[in-house]
Design brief:
Blueprint lengths: L5 E3 L17 H18 L2 H16 L10 H16 L3 E21 L4 E2 L2 E2 L11 E3 L1 E3 L19 E5 L5 H10 L4 E5 L22 E4 L1 H9 L6 E20 L4 E11 L9 H18 L8 E8 L7 H8 L3 H6 E7 L10 E4 L7 H13 L6 E4 L7 H5 L4 E5 L8 H7 L23 H20 L9
Length: 470
């Protein structure tokens, strides 16, 4: 790791049902792996995870309503998790790093007849001039992800109106800028809700002012007179801040065989982030605490990570991976990522490792099987670079994970297969103030906790299990 600020060491307490350390033949290890996976899945419950989610909600309530990276709410969340992991006997590292924190100071979109349209500035947006920017609109074709969506000079000198989906906000901004647009306004793909925020992922991606509005407002603008100018005011103040990843690993395992499971702990500044991503963090944390009851090493080193600044562009996980030596990267057998595992209109998705780093396709198969054991038919989704698996895959490390959906809309087929409401977003409170304790599906949380526990339990004794096809 590049930065190790503080290591907290605590002795392991007496552990019930402890699987003993020591060399074991392959058959014995396979038996231990199955036993550990089974007991861990039984012990890792929604009740346990909900205790952590309740703590995250209380922290947000006492910290300005959010747990964003660089804020007191995130620091308190990291301390809460780190203290529990230390007490459970893990070797805990607090890995601090600096980043460019953004605070929005202006966000307004006004039509020429004086009507205000609610808009949210994207993190790392370029600022409009002090007196705002006035220009007509132009609707991007498709989803604004390719040059063909901005034909000829149709967007030159205009504000591009772009639908959300398929590619990153940064990619939309880049294409709009290349077409000569002076700003980009992205309207939501979800039918309900208000304006939405997001991130361009990096300060260098702020090539245009970019903001998010509701779908209803976007469609209304697109259907109106595009030559009538609108006024856009977007501004953010930049400030260098420090934040922290929490890393916890077992003792007594093989340091050259490392299995990792992680989730981002930070929220957006718009809300407490209980589903995104308190749910994944609580799932990883609870699995780690229950693993400490049953495993003292003898197989792999199991390392858990609670990343920061994911919402600012995967900064925490990227800082960690960038700081690994070649040998440290080679030691990691697999990285498992859990981002949003309790969406209220839940889908059951497993990242499709086909064509990704070697072993990733096998991880997809195993996680799919863990859901199938519960009677759930998972749907594969591509790695799209939107979560903390991305730096691992870029480094050639096998990765996988499960996910219950964000702003996308549940289809009729999915509703028939999984229940829930077709045509509605998987998480109607994605990146919003209402992402609180009421924005969870307990059954989805329970199902994904079993996935995490089964995966960690198996790979603790058999670190290549997940990357080997069955």
């Amino acid at each position: 790791m590049r930065t190790r600020i503080r290591t907290i060491i605590a002795p392991l307490t007496a552990l019930p049902l402890l699987l003993l350390v020591g060399a074991a033949p392959p058959d014995a290890r396979a038996d231990r792996a199955e036993r550990l996976a089974r007991v861990l899945a039984e012990d890792t419950t929604a009740d346990g995870a909900l205790r952590h989610l309740t703590a995250f909600q209380r922290i947000a309530d006492a910290s300005g309503g959010h747990r964003a990276a660089g804020s007191p709410g995130h620091e308190r969340s990291a301390r809460y998790a780190g203290e529990l992991l230390t007490a459970a006997g893990y070797r805990v590292d607090y890995q601090r790093f600096g980043f460019s924190y953004r605070e929005t100071t202006a966000e307004r979109l006004t039509t020429d007849d004086g009507r205000d349209i609610p808009i949210r500035a994207m993190t790392y947006t370029a600022n409009t001039p002090d007196d705002g920017l006035t220009a007509p609109l132009a609707v991007a074709g498709g989803l604004g992800c390719t040059p063909e969506d901005y034909p000829g000079d149709t967007h030159r000198g205009r504000i591009a109106l772009v639908e959300r989906g398929d590619c990153t906000f940064a990619a939309k901004a880049e294409q709009a800028a290349a077409a000569g647009a002076v700003a980009a306004v992205v309207y939501d793909s979800a039918p309900d809700g208000g304006p939405f925020g997001g991130t361009l992922g990096d300060p260098d991606a702020g090539v245009l002012p970019v903001g998010g509005i509701s779908r209803a407002d976007g469609l209304a603008l697109a259907a109106g007179d595009l030559d009538r100018p609108v006024r856009l005011d977007l501004a953010q103040r930049a400030e260098d801040r420090e934040t922290v990843n929490v890393l916890a690993e077992t003792r007594g395992g093989d340091p050259d065989r490392v299995v990792m499971a992680g989730a981002h702990l930070d929220s957006v500044a718009d809300g407490p982030g209980i589903n995104d991503n308190g749910s994944g963090s609580a799932g990883v944390l609870e699995t780690a605490l229950r693993l400490a009851d049953h495993y003292r090493g003898g197989g792999a080193t199991v390392r858990f990570a609670l990343w920061s600044a994911e919402e600012s562009g995967l900064l925490g996980s990227r800082h960690y991976v960038d700081g690994l030596t070649e040998d440290e990267r080679a030691a990691i057998s697999v990285y498992l990522n859990f981002d949003m595992i309790a969406s209220p209109n839940a889908g059951f998705f497993v990242h499709d490792g086909t064509g990704a780093a070697d072993g990733s396709a096998a991880v997809t198969g195993h996680l799919t099987e863990y859901l199938a054991e519960q009677g759930i038919t998972a749907e594969p989704i591509p790695f799209n670079g939107r979560s903390d698996y991305a730096p691992f895959l870029e480094a050639g490390i096998a990765a996988g994970g499960s996910h219950t959906g964000a702003e996308g809309l549940k289809t009729e087929d999915q509703a028939a297969r999984w229940g829930g409401t077709a045509g509605a977003p998987y998480d109607p409170c994605y990146h919003a103030a209402c992402d609180d304790l009421g924005n969870l599906d307990r059954a989805a949380l329970e199902a994904n906790l079993r996935v995490i526990a089964r995966a960690v339990g198996h790979s603790a004794w058999l670190p290549d299990a997940l990357t080997t096809p069955r």
